Amino acid sequence: MSDASPRFPALPPRWMPIGEGPELCSAGQWWDAVRAVEVIGRRAIELLHDGGVPVGPVVLDPGGPEPRLYFLVPPGTADGWEEPGTVPLGQKCHVVVPPSTATEPPGLHWHVFPRGPRSLTQPGPLRRALAQARQELRGPEQATDSGYL
Questions:
Q1: What's the whole-model pTM score?
Q2: Considering only CA atoms, which of 100, 102, 104, 44 is closest in space to residue 69?
Q3: What CA–CA distance (Å, rounded) separates 62 from 64?
């Protein structure tokens, strides 16, 4: 039997909403999240892929004045996160998570679908990719502006 057609379908992670609608999920237990504006986040994903780094689950929230990506990272990452232009979400924070069926626009959806319950983006490579993406897209002077979200 090949890996491409497993005998049993993969189960969604226990933290993923079951049903038709999104759910407000607590960060800090199964994962923390790092929020970035969409344009920076998309470029960071490209950089990670180009470097052969696995990208864990990413939620795209198109609402608000500027769409945002939420990278799910290992619990505890938010405690030491200090990357300008991003917002770490850990203990006492919440993220609206789409159901497993929301894999494309419109609305809140999985930009990168979870491959498994522990397939989270590693913080070191993500931090470097976000910094490079910000520098490329905003220029060196604005890249250090921590007020940009």
A1: 0.85
A2: 44
A3: 7
